[in-house]
């Protein structure tokens, strides 16, 4: 082997050794920034967007329109979530459930998270405005402001109804999806908005019940922290009944068929039964696993998923 070959081999070996740590660092950094967007929450938001677009189109929307809308929606929600983590970093550091978030662990600096959130939010508005339509872009900007300013900065630390009114931001994807197809917002879209609006409290309060001590420590007045379990369970029943009523009102407005009708009745009755069972357990004084708040939490996700899957299938099934 020549001296040149030997040197080349040594250099290549050193480069290889450097590449491993660099790749791992890059992978960790990318995962941290993705975590800032809260992808698991965004998955649920996108599940409601696609079926809404199918209903608005009365079938398949243009494939590219779906892609453009979903990408824009992800960027908007991701930007809002990153800004939420920036603003809530003090709370996240005190709660066991959120101590591993990137800003708390130091994987992403607060300044970097702030810039990241702002950049994603701006890109989302431009993306939707240019590739979808101005209405969808305006609704996305409204969703970001509602989540970051109205919920995170104003409501979350001040009122036990924070998740009720702050949940408006989570209802916006259906309006964005509808307007992406039609350029407008109809009463059907408003009813879908209200379904998610009334769904949000019975979805989130069981989770808050499980992590009550976390919220107490952080000083966040979630309803399960400041009110009795009975009060929470009664409000969950009220919201669930209103949610089912709005889901059935969509049938009356037209545009849906038997698939959605059957699904809305069946899934609504099933979820209401679970909420009523939860209220009965509260009345009996059960706690912890015997109370089963997470059963209701997971069931709420299943309910919304099944309802919107039926909404997506419905335009293709007519008798």
Automatic annotation (TrEMBL):
GO BP: heme O biosynthetic process
Membrane topology recorded in Swiss-Prot or TrEMBL: Multi-pass membrane protein
Subcellular localization, as worded in the UniProt entry: Cell membrane
Gene3D superfamilies named among the record's database cross-references: UbiA prenyltransferase (1.10.357.140)
Keyword Ligase carried by entry: no
Reaction catalyzed: heme b + (2E,6E)-farnesyl diphosphate + H2O = Fe(II)-heme o + diphosphate
Alphabetical UniProt keywords: Cell membrane, Heme biosynthesis, Membrane, Transferase, Transmembrane, Transmembrane helix
Cellular component, GO annotation: plasma membrane
Major localisation: membrane
Biochemical pathway: Porphyrin-containing compound metabolism; heme O biosynthesis; heme O from protoheme: step 1/1
Stretches that traverse the bilayer: 41-60, 66-87, 108-130, 136-155, 162-181, 187-205, 232-253, 259-279, 291-313
EC number(s) given by UniProt: 2.5.1.141
GO MF terms held by the record: protoheme IX farnesyltransferase activity
Function: Converts heme B (protoheme IX) to heme O by substitution of the vinyl group on carbon 2 of heme B porphyrin ring with a hydroxyethyl farnesyl side group.
NCBIfam families, per database record: cyoE_ctaB (TIGR01473), PRK04375.1-2 (NF003349)
Additional notes on this entry: Carbon 2 of the heme B porphyrin ring is defined according to the Fischer nomenclature.
Protein name: Protoheme IX farnesyltransferase
Gene: ctaB
């Amino acid at each position: 082997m020549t001296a040149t070959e030997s040197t080349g081999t040594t250099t290549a070996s050193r480069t290889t050794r450097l590449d491993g740590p660099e790749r791992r660092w890059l992978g960790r950094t990318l995962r941290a920034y993705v975590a800032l967007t809260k992808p698991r929450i965004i998955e649920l938001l996108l599940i409601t967007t696609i079926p809404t677009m199918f209903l608005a189109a009365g079938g398949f929307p243009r494939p590219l329109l779906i892609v453009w809308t979903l990408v824009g929606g992800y960027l908007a929600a991701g930007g809002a979530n990153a800004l939420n983590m920036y603003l809530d970093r003090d709370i996240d550091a005190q709660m066991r459930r959120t101590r591993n978030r990137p800003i708390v662990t130091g994987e992403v600096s607060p300044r970097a998270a702030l810039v990241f959130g702002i950049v994603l939010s701006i890109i989302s508005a431009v993306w939707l405005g240019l590739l979808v339509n101005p209405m969808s872009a305006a609704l996305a900007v409204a969703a970001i402001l509602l989540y970051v300013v109205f919920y995170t900065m104003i409501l979350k630390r001040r009122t036990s109804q924070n998740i009720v009114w702050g949940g408006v931001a989570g209802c916006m994807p259906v309006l964005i999806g509808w307007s992406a197809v039609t350029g407008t917002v109809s009463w059907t879209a408003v009813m879908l908005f209200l379904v998610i609006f009334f769904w949000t409290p019975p979805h989130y309060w069981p989770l808050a019940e499980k992590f009550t001590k976390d919220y107490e420590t952080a000083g966040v007045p979630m309803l399960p922290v400041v009110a009795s379990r009975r009060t929470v369970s009664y409000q969950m029943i009220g919201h669930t009944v209103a949610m089912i009523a709005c889901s059935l009102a969509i049938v009356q407005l037209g545009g849906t068929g038997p698939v959605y009708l059957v699904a809305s009745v069946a899934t609504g009755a099933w979820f209401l039964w679970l909420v009523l069972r939860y209220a009965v357990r509260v009345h009996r004084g059960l706690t912890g696993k015997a109370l089963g708040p997470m059963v209701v939490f997971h069931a709420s996700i299943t309910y919304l998923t099944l309802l919107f899957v039926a909404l997506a299938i419905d335009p293709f099934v007519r008798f």
